[in-house]
Each structure stands twice: as C-alpha cells, then as structure tokens.
From TrEMBL:
Any one Gene Ontology BP term: lactose metabolic process
Catalyzed reaction equations: D-tagatofuranose 6-phosphate + ATP = D-tagatofuranose 1,6-bisphosphate + ADP + H(+); D-ribose + ATP = D-ribose 5-phosphate + ADP + H(+)
Official protein name in the record: Ribokinase
Involved pathway(s): Carbohydrate metabolism; D-ribose degradation; D-ribose 5-phosphate from beta-D-ribopyranose: step 2/2; Carbohydrate metabolism; D-tagatose 6-phosphate degradation; D-glyceraldehyde 3-phosphate and glycerone phosphate from D-tagatose 6-phosphate: step 1/2
Predominant location: cytoplasm
Annotated organism of origin: Clostridium beijerinckii (Clostridium MP)
GO CC, alphabetical: cytosol
InterPro entries: Carboh/pur_kinase_PfkB_CS, PfkB_dom, Ribo/fructo_kinase, Ribokinase, Ribokinase-like, Tagatose/fructose_Pkinase
Positions bound to ATP: N184, K220, L221, G222, S223, D224, G225, G251, D252, N276
Carbohydrate kinase PfkB domain span: 1-294
Keywords carried by this UniProt record: ATP-binding, Carbohydrate metabolism, Cytoplasm, Kinase, Lactose metabolism, Magnesium, Metal-binding, Nucleotide-binding, Potassium, Transferase
Domain of life assignment: Bacteria
Known function: Catalyzes the phosphorylation of ribose at O-5 in a reaction requiring ATP and magnesium. The resulting D-ribose-5-phosphate can then be used either for sythesis of nucleotides, histidine, and tryptophan, or as a component of the pentose phosphate pathway.
C-alpha cells in the first residue's frame, strides 16, 4: 500500500448544538457544548489513521492546551506527528461550530498557528514529506504554501489530491499540479463562477478546470453520492443512506476514504464508493472525528448494502 501525507490545518472545534440557527441580533439557548479536534487537514489525517493508513500529518499547532491535546489525538489514532510543530506565542486554530437539530452546520474558523505554515516550514520538513506517495491538500493554510508545495511534489512525480475547501476562487496555476480535485457543489460553483443545476451543467463546468490542467474531478454531491468527471465522460456513483447527526467532517472523511482506496491501488469507481461510505458513516455521531470508522467497519457497511 502506498503511503500518504496530509498537509493542512489543525483546529479545535468548539461545537454548540441548537434547535435552530439564530438570525442576526437574536440570542438563542444552546442545547449542549463540546470541544472536538478538527480542521480539514487534521480530520483527513485522523480518518486515514483510523482506516489503517501509513499517514504523516504536516502542520502547526499553537502553544496552548488545544495544541497539546491535538498531538495526543494524532498519536492515538495512528497518525505520524513528526511533521507537526508548536508555534510559540500563538493560539492553535479554532473553529466555532453551530449544529442544528437536522444535522446541518455553520462554521467560523480562526486560523491561529495554521497561518504560519509557510514555505520555509515546508522546506524544514521536506525530508519527511518526500517519503510519501499521495498527498492531500485543503485551503486552510496559506495558499502560496499549498501551491509551492504542490509544484515541488509534481516535479517528483507524486500524486496530489486537492479538496478546494473552504470555497474560494483560485489562481489558474494551482490546477496544473492537481491530479484529483474533490469539490462539493458549492465549491465547484465558486471555482467556475456560475451555478450548476443539471448534470449537463456539471460536465460543462468541469471542462473549464480540465483546460487549466486538472486530471480528474470527483464532485461530492451529498446524499446523491458523487460524480467522477473526466474529459470524455461523467460517471455517477450513488451514495449511502444514513440518519445524520452531524455533517461537519463528511467531506474530509470522503477524501480520506477516497485516498485510502487510491493508496491500495483500487479502480477509481471503487475509490469513490469507499469514500462515499466513509463520509456517510462519519455523519452518524457528533463531532468531526468521533464517528470516523475503521477499515473493517467500512468494509462491512459496504457489504451489508
């Protein structure tokens, strides 16, 4: 099995559950409050570790109790933390999350130490980084760091997966270094600058990104599963039906499942099916990482359906 590396954010999620989200100027009573390790990078690394991957996390935490706790979480979930350093004098990243009764969420992210993951830091960890085969990126560290790192990895023939989240417009250059782009519908609309309301629109939108250099787009479509889009065709892959409790890390879990199967050199459709399963299971408990499954659980989940 190929080895993996996640380069990205490490946040502590501060989660409040509410009946309904407040509107501007309104105060509502929350039902519960919890803290969970999160951040898109950390979520993907933890999910990979639980699946049994050989995975390295690269990022930064702050000089606070959240950072210390996160190091313990990484190590206890089979994630190599040699690529994680403490940024002195700074807080760890935090995400303030509201979760409603129907499992929907909204999120405010404060980057903290994640903003200090610069190009020099990546260079200082390069001897560790270059040992991996497949790399996962998101957009919660400085964009210039992600682009420079992807460029260097592609020169070495590595495989790059980009989850373009949170949804922002991106410079054309980045797409030259991406093998697999994994946006949800909102993120894809942001990247192409227009609404998508049909499969025809989906395929047409993807052409713009292929022209910029992307090899394959795997569009995450929520309960509708995913779509594998190549230059010549679009293949729909149905999702799995579960009763969601918290959808916070469903996209991160999908990416981890997809990358895990890719590392096992499965066919692309199998990789997406596995990603769909990991993503679905991850929504069945509160907190970004609480329901992230083992390989055995995912395997049984797929076979049972």
């Amino acid at each position: 099995m190929k080895s993996l590396c996640v380069i990205g954010s490490l946040n502590m999620d501060l989660v409040t559950t509410v009946e309904n989200f407040p509107v501007a100027g309104q105060t509502v009573m929350g039902k519960a409050f919890n803290t969970f390790p999160g951040g898109k990078g950390g979520n993907q690394a933890i999910a990979l570790g639980r699946l049994g991957s050989d995975v390295l996390m690269v990022g930064k935490i702050g000089e606070d109790m959240y950072g210390k706790r996160y190091l313990e979480v990484l190590r206890s979930n089979n994630v190599k933390s040699d690529g994680v350093s403490i940024e002195k004098g700074m807080s760890s990243g935090v995400a303030v999350i509201q979760v409603s009764n129907n499992g929907e969420n909204n999120i405010i992210v404060v980057p903290g130490a994640n903003a200090e993951v610069d190009i020099n830091y990546i260079e200082s960890k390069w001897s560790l980084i270059e040992r991996a085969d497949i790399f996962l990126f998101q957009l919660e560290i400085p964009l210039e760091t992600a682009i420079a790192t992807m460029k260097k990895l592609k020169k070495q023939g590595k495989t790059v997966i980009l989850d373009p989240a949170p949804a922002v417009g991106l410079p054309d250059e980045i797409f030259k270094y991406v093998d697999y782009l994994t946006p949800n519908e909102t993120e894809l609309e942001t990247l192409i600058g227009r609404k998508i309301n049909s499969e025809e629109n989906l395929v047409e939108a993807a052409k713009t990104l292929f022209d910029k250099g992307v090899r394959v787009i795997v569009a995450k479509l929520g309960s509708d599963g995913a779509a594998i889009i190549k230059k010549d065709k679009c293949t729909r892959v149905p999702g799995f039906i579960v009763d969601p409790i918290d959808t916070t890390a469903a996209g991160d879990s999908f990416n981890a499942g997809f990358a895990f199967a890719l590392a096992k050199e499965k066919e692309l459709k199998e990789c997406v099916i596995f990603g769909n399963a990991v993503g679905a299971i991850s929504t069945t408990a509160l907190g970004a990482q609480e329901a992230m499954p083992t390989f055995e659980r995912v395997d049984k989940f797929i076979r049972d359906r």
